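Please fill in the sequence for the structure shown.

STRUCTURE ENCODING:
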């Protein structure tokens, strides 16, 4: 008997969620161009991130996976350079409060 895959692109959406979260908490580079500043202002705010994550949630990513990934960013040694960036703490707390992690 064949089983039907309800979420055929689940792995892609899981990876997309991770990239979206990392991009948001990373913020701008040290010396951004005018175009990067404009794109960041337009697309990298909490509401755009919420919309992208809601789309990923509809396609099989769970809230628990998002919360686990946020916890991984906060504690894992592979994200140490990300945590050292300026403004990381504010953006990370904004993401945590969006998902009610405490």
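FILLED IN BY: designer on duty
SEQUENCE:
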């Amino acid at each position: 008997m064949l089983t039907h895959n309800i979420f055929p692109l689940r792995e892609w959406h899981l990876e997309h969620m991770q990239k979206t979260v990392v991009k948001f908490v990373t913020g701008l580079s040290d010396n951004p161009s005018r175009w990067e500043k404009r794109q960041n202002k337009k697309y990298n705010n909490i509401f755009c991130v919420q919309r992208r994550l809601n789309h990923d949630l509809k396609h099989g990513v769970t809230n628990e996976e998002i919360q686990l990934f946020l916890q991984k960013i906060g504690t894992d040694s592979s994200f140490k350079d990300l945590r050292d960036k300026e403004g990381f703490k504010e953006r990370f707390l904004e993401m945590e409060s969006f998902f009610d992690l405490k």
